[in-house]
Amino acid sequence: MFTRGFKLFFGIAGAALVAALVFGMFTNDVSGPNYLGVLDRETLKGVISLGWRGGIGEPIGYIILLMLAVSAGFVGITLNAFRDADPESVAELSPTGELAPGEAPTAPSWWPLGGAIGVGSLIVGFATSTALWALGLVIITVVAFEWAMSAWADRATGDPDTNIRLRRSIMGPIEIPFLSLGAVAVIALAVSRIFLTVSKAWAVWVAMIVAVLILGLGALLASRPRLAKSAVAAMVGGLAVLVIGAGIASAAAGERKIEHHDSHSEGHSDGESHSEDESHSEDEG
């Protein structure tokens, strides 16, 4: 049995897929034997094989419509898997097997602040930098998805603990890998800025200090398995702030001057000097 949410989003996915195929067909240059007077065989192969075996016309519009179809299809499958959060499915997550009456959320939400940062970055990026514009777009996309899931989970039941467990069971497998990947990327970028700012000798010491800090923190956490979560978060957050702050300061200071040695020009110069010495000796002789 398909839910209403599944039908809605799969309808959007089907319409976007048809629009992508039509757009790819009618924006391609027509050459060769045509179908219906406008389509050729290569174009038909191209739009069906996603451009692998033929042309697809205007690629940007084709890709946008195709990604809309994929995204809507994913949302539809997700809604059908969770049965549009119907009471019976949500009640299965409760320890008692009963669904508490729903109520409005009372906890504050930080997602509006994140959305404002994303919109500001997007607007400023229009006038300054493409990278800043892309960052704002990513922030807005993430905030919209997370905010929607939080709003749904907050109103799923009347029990706040059940709502938290419900959200974690759905978003945990998605958030943890992406947050870990993002944290590693930010730390690596900050450390690289430090390496490019300090001298070669200091770069070795910086690498040793960062490695010792990470190893020491890991050893401390392993030796204290019952340490409070707040203390663990404070230590990890403090180390991350220290490294990221040093990376920002290094980026503001600028990179050190790196001398590039051209072996070809040096060899050429040595050859010219040697030739000049020989000619000078012959003149003297």
Low-confidence stretches: 31-38
Number of domains: 3
Which class best fits the helix and strand makeup? mainly alpha
Query: What form results from the Cα inertia axes?
Result: flat
Describe this structure in words.
With 285 residues, the protein is mostly helical. The chain has three domains: 1-81, no CATH class; 86-98 and 106-158, Helix Hairpins (Orthogonal Bundle), CATH 1.10.287; 172-257, no CATH class. The chain is 74% helix and 1% strand. The chain is built from ten helices and two strands. It has helices spanning 4-26, 41-48, 59-81, 87-91, 111-127, 130-154, 160-197, 200-223, 229-253, 263-284; strands at residues 34-35, 39-40. The chain has a two-stranded antiparallel sheet with strand order 1-2. A hairpin with a 3-residue loop joins β1 (34-35) and β2 (39-40). It is flat. The model is unreliable at 31-38 (pLDDT under 50).
Please describe the structure with a list of short key phrases separated by commas or semicolons.
single chain; 2 strands; 285 residues; two-stranded antiparallel sheet; Helix Hairpins; mainly alpha
Gist?
It is built from 10 helices and 2 strands, in the order αββααααααααα. The protein has helices at 4-26, 41-48, 59-81, 87-91, 111-127, 130-154, 160-197, 200-223, 229-253, 263-284; strands at residues 34-35, 39-40. The chain has a two-stranded antiparallel sheet with strand order 1-2.
List the helices and strands and how they pair.
Elements: H1 4-26, E1 34-35, E2 39-40, H2 41-48, H3 59-81, H4 87-91, H5 111-127, H6 130-154, H7 160-197, H8 200-223, H9 229-253, H10 263-284
Antiparallel strand pairs: 1-2
